[in-house]
Specification:
Oligomer: single chain
Shape: globular
Mean pLDDT: 83
Distance between the termini: 25 Å
Bound molecules: zinc ion
Helix content: under 10%
Strand order of the largest sheet: 1-2-3-4
Number of helices: 0
Strand content: 35-45%
Largest sheet: 4 strands, antiparallel
Length: 67
């Protein structure tokens, strides 16, 4: 899948931010729920929550998958 015009990561300025999709508990897909930096040394993640809230996180090197 090739996505044109990916936004650059504002944090490291090297990686691109790629959209990630998620699913609700009901199984409804939520496209672009989160954006993650492709730079493995950066690990910048933006999560879009409901009601226009945006959560900015940084994944630690212990890449524990959150459920
Ligand atoms: Zn980055």
């Amino acid at each position: 899948m090739v996505l044109p015009n990916l936004p650059k990561c504002q944090r490291c300025g090297k990686g691109d931010l790629v959209p990630l999709s998620d699913y609700t508990r009901e199984g409804t897909p939520i496209p672009y729920k989160a954006w993650a930096c492709t730079n493995p040394k950066c690990r910048f993640v933006i999560k879009i929550r409901g009601k226009g809230e945006v959560e900015i996180t940084e994944s630690s090197d212990k890449s524990n998958e959150q459920k």
